[in-house]
Amino acid sequence: MADVVVGKEKCGEQRLVSLPLSRIRVIMKSSPEVSSINQEALVLTAKATELFVQYLATYSYRHGGGKEKKALTYSDLSDTAEESETFQFLADILPKKILASKYLKTLKEKREEEEEEEDDNNDESDDDEAES
């Protein structure tokens, strides 16, 4: 495995992985539990990542609206993350898009609900003190 050319094409040979190994190494080393990274582990991680991304894209394209448009969209990916059990762990990373105005409206409603709850709690504590 160590004899295989990895990285840029050399003498017309095809690359083993497409992702930049230096970036993957940096990400892997960012974990405090990792002290050194074997070259084979690095290549295998890169290849596994490529295959995962390919599977996610293919699945999202087939099960999303991409077939009609012949394109894969962000909403296809976020729908897959939300609806598929396999990709459920990506729901926080690929959230559904929301307009800023809709988000601000939702945030305002949430704050109003919290204020009402606080007022209700204060009224209840005032009633308890009056009974004492």
TrEMBL record:
Function: Forms a complex with DNA polymerase epsilon subunit POLE3 and binds naked DNA, which is then incorporated into chromatin, aided by the nucleosome remodeling activity of ISWI/SNF2H and ACF1. Does not enhance nucleosome sliding activity of the ACF-5 ISWI chromatin remodeling complex.
Chain segments carrying region Disordered: 108-132
Domain Transcription factor CBF/NF-Y/archaeal histone: 18-78
A Gene Ontology term for the protein's cellular component: CHRAC
Chief location: nucleus
Subcellular location: Nucleus
CDD domains cross-referenced by the UniProt entry: HFD_CHRAC1-like
Organism listed in the record: Lipotes vexillifer
Subunit structure: Heterodimer with POLE3; binds to DNA. Component of the CHRAC ISWI chromatin remodeling complex at least composed of SMARCA5/SNF2H, BAZ1A/ACF1, CHRAC1 and POLE3; the complex preferentially binds DNA through the CHRAC1-POLE3 heterodimer and possesses ATP-dependent nucleosome-remodeling activity. Within the complex, the heterodimer with POLE3 interacts with SMARCA5/SNF2H; the interaction is direct and enhances nucleosome sliding activity by the SMARCA5/SNF2H and BAZ1A/ACF1 interaction. Within the complex, the heterodimer with POLE3 interacts with BAZ1A/ACF1; the interactions are direct.
MF terms (GO), sorted A to Z: DNA binding; nucleotidyltransferase activity; protein heterodimerization activity
Biased composition (Acidic residues): 112-132
A biological process from GO: chromatin remodeling
Keywords for this protein: Acetylation, Coiled coil, DNA-binding, Nucleotidyltransferase, Nucleus, Phosphoprotein, Transferase
Short name of any one Pfam family annotated for the protein: CBFD_NFYB_HMF
Protein name: Chromatin accessibility complex protein 1
InterPro entries: CBFA_NFYB_domain (IPR003958), Histone-fold (IPR009072), Transcr_DNA_Rep_Reg (IPR050568)
